[in-house]
């Protein structure tokens, strides 16, 4: 009886019952689906993944044994089609997380600015974007903005970037002809940096890496060159190409998610005790120094948990790519399900992939959260 009065034991029992109930429901649903599929002569099998897909994608690369990474083609298998969709999703998610975080922090700090124009613009942006549906915003970006851009002949150019109906082309670094000779210097510098980090002398490791890389550049030349987009008879070529579909999805997700991150950052900064600001100013620190060295390090600990939720939301919202015709994982699944009839097997694969990606993002954020907490003694 005393055991049943222990709060931890009661919580463990409730969690076990909840887990058992969830597993029972899942097994029941899976069993029912398999029984109905068998009654209709449709076995539950993933063997179809080795069949030829027979459809093309507007963009995407896949991995082929013996060939490595290459553009996806109609003669590839369903497995390679799923992989191409997954890599497209990964492109959107990784780029979206980085850009949304940067934009969210900038807007969040602007919401606290003493300048009325910056504060007002940030407030208008947050309230407008947060209170309109993401799907509508994607339509605006795609149909009302990107598809209304001028043709290639009248493309907009700014600092080497080119924007037209064909998409957004950016200057982008690529490996030069001396990369083969530079690799030894590159990996040598990376090894020195790793040694420095292992010895808790990261700064010395970075200096050693820079010296080794500098020696490689002096002896052999630059291993990277910047490739600029140029107009050809077949349209724009060169640099980093962002198709209108990819750009619409990326811009929509970044702008939408950044509005929520901005409010998280604003709330975290305001949650830092006012005495911290006053003490920093009493030491003679300027406003940027107070924010950089005193406030933001403390606000990061408050930001991380809700920030992880926004990262997961962006990952799941990327499935709206089908609305603008971008061939992400979910869009590829729709095509495969309609063509092969393997909707149940396909949705299991898609759910598993999204689950793994979401758990990976959560694990990375939690790992960084623990590292920050240990560093600052929280």
Automatic annotation (TrEMBL):
Q: How does it sit in the membrane?
A: Multi-pass membrane protein
Subcellular location(s): the record lists: Cell membrane
Concerning CDD domains, the annotation shows: TM_PBP2
Signal sequence segment? none
Q: Which UniProt keywords apply?
A: Amino-acid transport, Cell membrane, Membrane, Plasmid, Transmembrane, Transmembrane helix, Transport
Extract the InterPro entries matched here.
AA_ABC_transptr_permease_3TM, ArtM/GltK/GlnP/TcyL/YhdX-like, MetI-like, MetI-like_sf
Any Pfam family from its record, for instance, is BPD_transp_1
Q: Which residues cross the membrane?
A: 92-110, 122-144, 182-199, 206-226, 246-269, 347-368
Source organism, top-level taxon: Bacteria
Chief place where the protein resides:
membrane
* ABC transmembrane type-1 domain sequence ranges: 86-365
Which Gene Ontology cellular component annotation is one that this UniProt entry carries? ATP-binding cassette (ABC) transporter complex
The record's Gene Ontology biological-process terms are:
amino acid transport
The GO terms this record gives for MF are: transmembrane transporter activity
**Record's family?**
Belongs to the binding-protein-dependent transport system permease family. HisMQ subfamily.
**This protein is called what?**
ABC transmembrane type-1 domain-containing protein
Identify the species of origin.
Answer: Allomeiothermus silvanus (strain ATCC 700542 / DSM 9946 / NBRC 106475 / NCIMB 13440 / VI-R2) (Thermus silvanus)
């Amino acid at each position: 009886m005393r055991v049943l009065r222990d709060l931890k034991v009661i919580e463990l029992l409730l969690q076990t019952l909840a887990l058992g109930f969830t597993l029972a429901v899942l097994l029941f649903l899976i069993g029912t689906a398999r029984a109905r599929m068998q009654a209709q002569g449709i076995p539950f099998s993933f063997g179809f993944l080795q069949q030829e897909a027979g459809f093309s994608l507007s963009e995407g690369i896949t991995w082929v044994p013996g060939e490595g990474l290459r553009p996806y083609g109609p003669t590839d298998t369903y497995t390679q089609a799923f992989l191409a969709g997954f890599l497209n999703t990964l492109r959107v998610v990784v780029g979206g997380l980085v850009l949304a975080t940067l934009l969210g922090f900038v807007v969040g700090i602007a919401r606290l600015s003493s300048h009325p124009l910056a504060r007002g613009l940030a407030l208008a942006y947050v309230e407008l974007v947060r209170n309109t549906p993401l799907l509508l915003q994607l339509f605006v970006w795609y149909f009302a903005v990107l598809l209304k851009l001028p043709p290639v002949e009248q493309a907009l150019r700014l600092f080497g970037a080119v924007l037209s109906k064909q998409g957004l082309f950016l200057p982008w670094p690529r490996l030069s002809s001396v990369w083969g000779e530079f690799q030894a210097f590159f990996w040598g510098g990376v090894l020195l940096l790793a040694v420095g980090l292992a010895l808790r002398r990261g700064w010395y490791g970075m200096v050693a890496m820079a010296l080794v890389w500098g020696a490689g550049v002096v002896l052999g030349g630059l291993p990277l060159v910047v490739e600029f987009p140029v107009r050809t008879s077949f349209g724009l070529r060169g640099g980093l190409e962002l198709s209108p579909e990819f750009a619409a999805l990326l811009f929509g997700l970044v702008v939408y998610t950044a509005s929520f991150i901005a409010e998280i950052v604003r709330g975290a900064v305001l949650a830092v005790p006012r005495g911290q600001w006053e003490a920093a100013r009493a030491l003679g620190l300027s406003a940027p120094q107070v924010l950089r060295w005193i406030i933001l390090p403390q606000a990061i600990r408050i930001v991380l948990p809700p920030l992880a939720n926004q990262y997961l939301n962006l990952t799941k919202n990327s499935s709206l790519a089908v609305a603008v015709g971008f061939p992400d994982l979910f869009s590829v699944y729709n095509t495969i399900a309609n063509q092969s009839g393997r909707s149940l097997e396909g949705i299991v694969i898609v759910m598993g992939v999204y689950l793994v990606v979401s758990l990976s993002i959560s694990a990375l954020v939690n790992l960084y959260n623990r590292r920050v907490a240990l560093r600052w003694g929280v």
